[in-house]
Amino acid sequence: MKKEFSRRTFIKSLGLGVAGLAAIRSPAAIGSLAARSEAIDVMIIGSGFGGAVTALRLAELGIHTVMLERGRRWPVTREQNTFSSLQDPDGRSAWLSDVALLGEAKPIDKYIGVLELVLGNGIASLAGAGVGGGSLVYAGALYQPSRALFKSIFADSVDYHEMDAIYYPRVRSVIDPQPIPFDILARPEYAAARKWWQLGRNAGLRTKLIELGVSWHAVWEELQGIRKPSVIAGEFWYGNNSGAKRSLDRNYLRHAERHGHLEILTQQNVSAIRKGPDGRYLVLVDEIDTDGAVLARRQYVVKKLFMAAGSLGTSRLLVKAKAKNDLPELNDAVGKYWGNNGDFFSSLSGFGRHIKPNLGGPVPVAIEDPFNSLLPTTVECYADWSLEGETGTISSVGMSVPPPKGRFIYDKTTDDVVLNWPGNDPDIQRVTQAGEATYHRLANAWGLTDRVSPVRPGHCLTHAPVTASVTAHPLGGVVLGRATDNIGRVRNHRGLYVVDGALIPGHTGCTNPALTIAALAERNVERIINRDF
Ligand SMILES: Cc1cc2nc3c(=O)[nH]c(=O)nc-3n(C[C@H](O)[C@H](O)[C@H](O)COP(=O)(O)OP(=O)(O)OC[C@H]3O[C@@H](n4cnc5c(N)ncnc54)[C@H](O)[C@@H]3O)c2cc1C
């Protein structure tokens, strides 16, 4: 395995001319490379939260593991220029798109950038791509749901007491998230966050500082002009150039690689999973160039396969495998029970000129409205880069507890899987109404009744269908206890596991989901290792 990978790297480092590249990309050339097949004991597909937790726990036990990731590595450079900026996007910002995804649809070069947009019916979803997955683009919010709301996700099938005592702290011990320190909160750049705090308190709602996976020391250096303004300037959706973000490549994955048993292969886009010989799995992979062109096709024969390609990636691969009879024993729950975490967006205005909505990131303060008469909600203020130059407005993202009515369906004509979200369903519309009720409560308590902008299920995307709602928190599709057993082992498939957000039915109880995804992976992988290895 190692040998072959370094051979390819060596060939690349020789530098192929344009003609050479064209030759290797031609279908004939790909065909001639297609038959190569390798046996692997343990493989993980995807390097986000679920994949990174799994990788570390396997590596600690000396279990050699190969991780396939479709994107590239994104090391933060001394020059602080690793990522594209939001204001001036280039190909690094988006996964194989020729227009920028956020804000104006500016043309960009097609590249294997960090943020993917997946358009479905009635929903547009965002997800991370690259080593570290969603942690490359996330706002760093590591938010634990309350006991009551956790029960609304898993009922009693996952013990909250155990999660609270063991697995949430285990994730924190690796990423070390911290709430914003008061000396930073007191800075002029964080005026909107302070106001958000006061708003919540005034309205009689629970208001808290969110634990964030950022280095506040680095943020302090941004404020001092020692590092590039990045977190403080609302840069996080395309990555943080200052190095403040504690993405997984800098903790879980780094620790796993240091153990010496994890091999991460980048630019490996898994296209299919099939039943292989002797109860093993065939994993079909396109090795891609930085513009997405296929350089080679590979096939792995795998004994134990962990799916960690995220809710969208894992669900799409397994729904396709079932529809095409590649894994015909997958049960009927595969592809179902998906939700958008109840994401909605709005803003409040009328706060005066000292409030600069584009400053003071990422998402320092949350207001919880658990007793909202429609549905519980949480609303978090965030630094909104798109409002540069404006004053007096605070942008926020909200979350709730939507019913998991989304479904992935295989389309034979396009040979693709499409996500369907019935946005007009009255149960789903209640989320928007609940969001409106929370915002009006906040505005009324501050005497700003007319200053609530309409609550939108989504924004930021200029070229997505206007009816689509947008989520940065896709969840579900291969749900725990339905498509898998209670620890993520896929039913009827020995040695096939799901360890990512696909396990969670639709929401994480009015919180950002990454902490719960990681903690659930800690719980499940511990049990899987004990029982199956
Ligand atoms: C802009 C943005 C901001 C966010 N902010 C927050 C936040 O502040 N807090 C929070 O809790 N959550 C946040 N999220 C959500 C969070 O990032 C996700 O919930 C989380 O990353 C999901 O973890 P996962 O393990 O399920 O999958 P992911 O982290 O999505 O990882 C999946 C990995 O699999 C790879 N992959 C996918 N398909 C394939 C394939 N076919 N072959 C090979 N590799 C593949 C992907 O490239 C990716 O690296 C945010 C998301 C976005 C998009």
Task: Characterise this structure.
The strands form five sheets. Strands 1, 2, 6, 7, 8, 9 and 19 form a seven-stranded mixed β-sheet that branches. The protein has a single domain, classed as FAD/NAD(P)-binding domain (3-Layer(bba) Sandwich). The two termini are 22 Å apart. α4 runs parallel beside α10, α4 (49-60) packs parallel to α13 and α6 packs across α13 (514-532). With 533 residues, the chain is α/β, with parallel strands linked by helices. β15 (407-411) and β16 form a beta hairpin. The protein contains 13 helices and 19 strands. Flavin-adenine dinucleotide is lined by residues 45-51, 68-71, 126-130, 133-134, 137-141, 237, 268-270, 308-311, 313, 472-473, 500-501, 512-515, 517.
Brief sketch in words of this structure:
The chain has 533 residues and is an alpha/beta fold. The protein has helices at 2-14, 18-25, 27-33, 49-60, 147-154, 160-175, 182-185, 191-202, 216-223, 252-258, 310-323, 426-445, 514-532; strands at 37-45, 65-68, 115-119, 123-128, 206-209, 262-265, 268-275, 281-288, 294-307, 336-339, 344-349, 365-369, 377-382, 393-399, 407-411, 416-420, 469-471, 475-477, 496-498. Helix 4 (49-60) runs parallel beside helix 13 (514-532) and helix 6 (160-175) packs across helix 13.
